[in-house]
UniProtKB/TrEMBL annotation:
Gene3D superfamilies listed in its UniProt record: Ureohydrolase domain (3.40.800.10)
GO molecular function ontology, one term from the record: metal ion binding
Protein name (Swiss-Prot/TrEMBL): arginase
Pfam family, one: Arginase
Enzyme class, broadest EC rank: hydrolase
CDD domains attached to this UniProt entry: Agmatinase-like_2
């Protein structure tokens, strides 16, 4: 990913240099527009196809559709999460386990799970598109999925910066705020981390500032600074730290969310898990949740889940024959069960 990220920066610098010479700005802008339009058209047509299929089969009130967002450049440490979406897909369908979820839903049924592919993040960045526009493209892509009732987005990251444009899209499309269940080792609520307002460490500050969430519950926290706690108090965030998990376990395994809002969004950072269960992450934080802790929270949650993301899996740090990829795939499977109905 380091090479991929550097490649994007290299092309951006070349485009900026071209723009400052005799190359008309309109030429670059028109080229960017064509790439963006083509990218959105591809997502739109895939979503239409999958939506038509699900509607033709009938019987689905809500159907999960995967959307990959291979973005890693807003990570403060390693950019490997950009490689995650294809590795997660490979693990979902690798054949080492069956395609039935723990609650009995069959992933081979398109009414349960479809896939609309990836937002071509690197190709868009190679055209010199900045992060403001890139975040808008991600939001537009999510809305295109939601246009095709009954599809609901389950987004494969990518670093955690993607949660801001995804939640923004879900909230705007539904016409109001959602409740968010956020599982993570970190609160990701810095006002502006290392000068980057779109840092993966600032995504939930942008979400709360925008009014896209009514309640934000953060579970699994064990790496938090004074600013993280102060920001949590500022926005009324309910932060559940691992040091008190034994006390909070019963409440967290019996959550009821979403009353009075447009639904519930689940954001699942793989590093919420103890690294014994998921070593393939950029920021290894010992003392996290067990895999079964996470599944108990998800399975027992009483909510209408309208969207979700699984982020921060870093294939470049995975070990033991893709163990973390299989963990991420299992989480995607069980989130699919929670969304589809």
């Amino acid at each position: 990913m380091w090479k991929s990220g550097k490649r994007g920066i290299h092309y951006l610098h070349k485009l900026n240099a071209a723009a400052s010479t005799n190359v008309p700005a309109s030429l670059i802008e028109n080229g960017q527009k064509r790439v963006i339009d083509a990218s959105l058209t591809l997502i739109r047509e895939r979503a239409k196809l999958k939506g038509e299929l699900v509607r033709a089969l009938g019987g689905a009130v809500a159907s999960t559709s995967l959307l990959g967002v291979p973005l890693g450049h807003n990570s403060s440490f390693l950019q490997g999460p950009a490689f995650a979406p294809p590795r997660i897909r490979e693990a979902i369908w690798c054949g080492s386990t069956n395609s039935t979820t723990e609650v009995g839903k069959e992933l081979n049924d398109p009414r349960v799970l479809t896939d609309v592919g990836d937002v071509p993040v690197q190709e868009i960045r190679d055209c010199g598109v900045d992060d403001d526009r890139l975040m808008a493209i991600i939001s537009d892509s999510v809305k295109l999925v939601m246009d095709e009732d009954p599809l609901r987005p389950l987004v494969l990251g990518g670093d955690h910066s993607i949660s801001f444009p995804v939640v923004r899209a879900v909230s705007e499309k539904l016409g109001g705020p959602v409740d968010i269940l956020h599982l993570d080792a970190h609160p990701d609520i810095y006002h502006c981390f290392e000068g980057n307002k779109y840092s993966h460490a600032s995504s939930f500050a942008r979400i709360m500032e925008g009014g896209y969430a009514r309640r934000l519950l953060q579970v699994g926290i064990r790496s938090i600074t004074k600013e993280g706690r102060d920001q949590g108090k500022k926005f009324g965030v309910e932060q559940y730290e691992m040091r008190t998990f034994s006390r909070d376990r019963h409440a967290l395994e019996n959550l009821k969310l979403g009353d009075g809002v447009k639904g519930v969004y689940i954001s699942l950072d793989i590093d919420c898990l103890d690294p014994a269960f998921a070593p393939g992450v950029s920021h290894i934080e010992p003392g996290g949740l067990s895999f079964r802790d996470v599944l108990n929270i998800i399975h027992n949650l009483q909510a209408d889940v309208v969207g979700a993301d699984v982020v921060e899996f870093n294939p470049q740090r995975d070990t033991v024959d893709g163990m973390t990829a299989m963990v991420a795939a299992k989480l995607v499977r069980e989130l699919t069960s929670k969304i589809s109905k």
